Amino acid sequence: MRDSAQEPNSPRHSGVSVAMPAVPPQEAEANLLQRAIHGDRQAFGELLQRHQPRALALATELVGSREDARDLLQEAALKAWRALHGFVPGRPFFPWFYRILRNACIQHLRARKLRRSRSLTVDADGETVVLEPSDRAAPLPEELFEQGERSRRLAQALVRLPPADAEILMLRHFQDLSYQEIAEALSIPVGTVMSRLHTARRRLRQLLPEMAAA
Description:
Elements: H1 11-14, H2 25-37, H3 41-63, H4 66-83, H5 93-111, E1 121-124, E2 127-130, H6 149-160, H7 163-174, H8 179-186, H9 190-213
């Protein structure tokens, strides 16, 4: 009696490949993180590549320049690599990385010594960085919005919001972060996240009818 594993019609002999079960994204990311923590630069690069589009979009919104955002993303990646030893296994990567990227953006803005002409501020570690309206006049990355009049108005409304409002709306509604992940990314309590979102949504609703009538 022949071993069934040697049957000519078995997948092994028929030339038909057996599809392996797909690895869930969270498990795949956890594996990349584990390898990166142990010094695997390639795994770290793959990890960053997964989150690059939304990280770049958020950095562009903060600094108003896609070119500057790319440079800051590289800077944050280097800082994250050096700080990986302090990463807590089991926690999501993006909120942790975004906190590093956000601080890099804020330091960049502080270095430019911006002066305020209207109330646009970003809080960082208890300090205030001022943004001029001209620095936020650049359109948001196209990939965040579908084509159409409604999307165009939404993008314009976000640019007119205070940066803290625009940032938290983007994290929640465009990047699909949970309240807990936003709290970790911004280093604030979950209750504060909910309060800021409520305020930001109210301000956004006030802007949209105004722009529709313009």
